[in-house]
Each structure stands twice: as C-alpha cells, then as structure tokens.
Amino acid sequence: MTTSPAAPRTEAERLLEESIASVREALAGLKYGNVSLTVHEGRVVQIDVTEKKRLKPN
Questions:
Q1: 50 and which of 9, 27, 28, 34 could share a cystine (Cβ 3.0–4.6 Å)?
Q2: Confidence class of residue 55 from pLDDT cuts 50, 70 and 90?
Q3: Any residues with CB less than 8 A from the CB of 39 and at least 6 apart, and which?
Q4: What angle do CA 9, 23, 29 make, to 5 degrees?
Q5: Is 28 in contact with 49 (CB distance < 8 Å)?
Q6: What are the pLDDT digits (tens) for 12-49?
Q7: Are 34 and 50 in contact (CB under 8 A)?
Q8: What is the 3-state secondary structure (H, E, C) of the chain?
Q9: Residue 29: per-residue pLDDT
Q10: 39 — phi, psi (to 5°)?
C-alpha cells in the first residue's frame, strides 16, 4: 500500500496553522486571564494576553 504525498499547503493554510500555533503558545501556562485576537481581512494580526494573579487571603 502506498500513500500519496501530502498536497502542498496553500499560503492561507500555512498562515492559519501559524496563527493556531501562536494561540496555543499564548494559552500555554495561562491559569487565569484573557487571550484576545485581533483579526483583519480574515487573518489574525495580533494576540493580546492578559494574565491575572490570584492572591491567597491572609
């Protein structure tokens, strides 16, 4: 049984995969907070991460 080579990715698919990888990286290790995406013309152009620190009451 032979497998056909993977179809070449389009530029749009490559950009989408890069965006998803960047979002995963932003989420890694984030316990509390927000991740905000800015999208222009269907593409992620900015990722903002706001991390919140939870303090234990005395």
A1: 34
A2: confident
A3: 45
A4: 135
A5: no
A6: 899 999 999 999 999 998 989 999 999 999 899 999 99
A7: yes
A8: CCCCCCCCCCHHHHHHHHHHHHHHHHHCCCCCEEEEEEEECCEEEEEEEEECCCCCCC
A9: 83
A10: -120, 130
Q: What are the beta bridge partners of residue 34?
A: 50
Cα angle 12, 17, 19; round to 5: 95
pLDDT greater than 90 at residue 1: no
The tokens for 3 are 């497998």
Length of the chain: 58
Return the structure tokens found at 43: 């593409």
